[in-house]
Write a structure and sequence with these properties.
Layout: H1 2-16, H2 18-31, H3 37-60, H4 80-84, H5 92-111, H6 114-122, H7 127-134, H8 140-166, E1 168-170, E2 173-174, H9 175-190, H10 193-198, H11 207-232, H12 240-245
Antiparallel strand pairs: 1-2
């Protein structure tokens, strides 16, 4: 009799909560439905839009490149000989400091214009790309974006870098002027008899191409970090579609 009463009471609770349980079940069924193709594409596009926007914003702020050791742009490897012998040039250390600051400020300036370029690229994603990315590793979307748009982004980004190189940023000197002054002084010395005896070689680097490459490397690095965060951290999924896509 005691067990019969317990079962009866439990049954009453179940029956009285039937409507609520049905509502919960319906909601669970709704959220567990397979994602449609449009949902997959929209979710991944949103993730990329969020990631690229966040990355561009991070790098576009003051010292976004310069004070981040992971993306800070240094002189080309060909200029190592200058760095190692910079003290032999009068005022060389200050020229070097100004140059590095100007280069990174130029990249930060160009990053402000990067978002629309990525938006246009992301819109071209199709369902095959989206499914491959969804099943890929932590950087699948970033790798896809880099592989399919890098050349176009480079050509679109380079003029912005070039314009930034001409801007007066520090001490009324542009980045290009700082680079030309530094390398010019070095090359003068390297071309002297003493410089040739010492084995010094002139530095000839296409600064725009180098700077554009390094700036984009930093941008894609940040995008990769953002993508990994969205995949791994539920709190980073700022919309319902992102939660559904990346909870699969």
């Amino acid at each position: 009799m005691k067990y019969f009463k317990i079962i009866s009471i439990s049954l009453l609770f179940v029956l009285s909560g039937c409507a609520e349980l049905k509502q919960i079940a319906d909601q669970t069924m709704a959220t567990s439905k397979p994602l449609s193709q449009n949902e997959i594409i929209n979710g991944l596009k949103e993730a990329l839009l969020v990631g690229t926007a966040n990355s561009a914003n991070i790098l576009a702020i003051s010292d976004g490149y310069y004070k981040d050791d992971l993306v800070k742009i240094l002189l080309p490897p060909e200029a190592d000989i200058i760095i190692n012998n910079i003290n032999k040039i009068p005022g060389g250390s200050q020229l070097l400091d100004n140059l590095l600051l100007n280069i990174n400020l130029a990249a930060e300036d160009a990053a402000k214009e990067a978002k629309p370029i990525f938006v246009n690229s992301i819109r071209s994603m199709n369902i095959t790309d989206a499914i491959g990315i969804l099943k890929g590793d932590d950087h699948a979307a970033t790798n896809y974006l880099r592989k399919t748009t890098y050349d176009q982004l480079f050509e679109l980004y380079r003029p912005k870098i070039a314009n930034s190189l001409e801007k007066k940023l520090v001490g009324n000197f542009s980045t290009r002027q700082s680079w030309n002054l530094l390398t010019g002084k070095w090359n003068e010395m390297a071309n002297t008899f003493v410089g040739q005896i010492a084995g010094f070689k002139p530095v000839e680097v296409k600064l725009e191409e180098y700077l554009t490459t390094k700036a984009l490397d930093g941008l894609f690095l940040k995008i990769g970090d953002e993508e990994k965060n969205i995949r791994k951290n539920p709190m980073a999924r700022v919309s319902e579609i992102l939660k559904r896509v990346f909870s699969q």
